[in-house]
Structures are given as structure tokens and as C-alpha cells.
Amino acid sequence: xxHVIRKLFGNQRDQDALVPLYNAAVASAREPHxxxxxxxxxxxxxxxxxxxxxxxxxxxxxxxxxxQEQNSVWLTELFIEDMDGQLRQIxxxxxxxxxxxxxxxxxxxxxxxxxxxALTSGAPLEPLVLRNIYTEQEPDSAAVQHTVGALNARWAAxxxxxxxxxxxxxxxx
Length: 173
Known about the structure:
Elements: H1 2-9, H2 12-16, H3 19-29, H4 44-64, H5 69-89, H6 94-121, H7 126-132, H8 141-159, H9 163-167
Helix pairs in contact: 3-4, 4-6, 4-8, 5-6
């Protein structure tokens, strides 16, 4: 559906330029350390929680960079399009996809707001991580510290990346 809308309004090429950035965020969220050392449940929900956390960091970074408003919208559209495809692949029918996509958008919006607030105020990420990533099981403190540390490290790395590098898929060292 979104690909039809993009074709109608002519932003397909510009949005396609963000595919490397989206792919980098997905690759970062799929790194095994989240699920091994961080003990995030290796389930659809656990993987989704890590992905929207990493994507939220990227979107907050884009907000800091001048002129990236439209690119952040297109990056979000790529995420929604990917989630739409994933839902269909796991067997959600046409009638259910819209409801699920609405929930996904709400989850991303909530996570984005929570990360934005924490990162701009300097608040610790641990309460946010406990509330939003460990929803299926109670992790041990070392796992939580790993996940918090990994998110803080990703955020620190993103701070060193300029707009052009970020759009090319560079999430920092």
C-alpha cells in the first residue's frame, strides 16, 4: 500500500536513498549480543522491541541534524512498509494488517518519545529498557546493564555521525 502512495506522490527515489540507513538499523538490532548477553527474548516481540529501540535512537539523532525532517518521515515509512510485509509473511490477513500497523506505529511513537525525553534530559535508560524491552521475562541485572550499555554506546556512536554519513547507513563505530 505504501509503495503505491509513494509512487503517486513521487518520493520513491528519495525514500529509496534511505534503504541503507534502514538496513543498518535492522542489522544493528539483529546483532546476537542483544539476545545472548542482553537476554532479550529471541522472539518476534523481543526482536521488534530491539528494532524500535535502535530505530528510535537513529530518529532522535536525525532530529538533531538540520534538514532531516523529511528523511526521518521516509525512514519511518520504510519501517512501516517492512512491518506490513513481515505481518503478511507471518500470515496476518489484509483485514488485520491495518490494526497491527496502527499498534506498531503507536509503539514506535511511544518509544521514540521515551528515548527522546531520556536522551535530551540525561535520564538513565534503565527504567525505559525495563519497561519497553523486557516485557516477556524478568532479566538479571547483568543483562539489563548490557542492554543499557549497548544502547548508550549506539547513541554515543551516532553522535559522531554527520547527516550524509548517517543517510548512507553509517551508525558510527
